[in-house]
Amino acid sequence: MIESSVSNCPVPSEQQPLNEYEELKSSWLFRDCTLDWREYITKLTCIWGLSWPIAAAVAAVSFPPHKQIAHFLLCGSAGASLGLILILLRLYLGWSYVQHRLASPIIFYEESGWYDGQTWTKPQEVLTRDRLIVTYQIKPIIQRLQISFASLAVLFVAGTIVWHLV
Q: What are the transmembrane regions (predicted)?
């Protein structure tokens, strides 16, 4: 029964929320959010580590490592975290967009270009299916990203306290 509702869907295949979700879930950056916690943290740590050389170069200009090692390390760590924040923000915005499209009862789509937008009201069974995906698949990812942002905020506060103590 669901298949007949989806097959009657006027929304182009690449703009259907379920297909957008599947595409996002399989893309190289966004699939990292679906890993178990250990692998997820490892990926975030790698991203942070890859940001370190640039951040360290900038921090070294203001705080020479041979004179002010603590300030250099704190400044470099904070700078490297900015790259991580940008990646997390991109992940959050992508997953939030798909969450909104799946949870919405009305879908906006473009038939052939930006100038001919249409809307489609989802049948109840499609809406129920999509909202189940939101509840059991996407909300845990959004929560994981929110925990990541909160953890970074705590680390920034801790770094600020240490900065003032040093």
A: 40-63, 69-93, 147-165
Helix 124-133 with 17-26: angle, nearest 10 deg: 20
Reported as a single tens digit per residue, the pLDDT across 84-129 is 999 999 999 999 999 999 999 999 998 877 677 889 999 999 999 9
Instruction: Using alpha carbons, select from 103, 93, 121, 107 the residue that is nearest to residue 14.
Output: 107
CA angle 90, 61, 166 (to 5 degrees): 85
CA gyration radius, the chain: 21
Q: Please state the three-class secondary structure of 71-136 as a single string.
A: HHHHHHHHHHHHHHHHHHHHHHHHHHHHHHHHHCCEEEEECCCCCCEEEEECCHHHHHHHHHHHHH
| pLDDT value at residue 8 | 80
Write the CB contacts of 18 (distance below 8 Å, at least 6 apart in sequence). Answer: 6, 102, 129, 130, 133
For the chain, residues with pLDDT lower than 70 are 1-7, 114
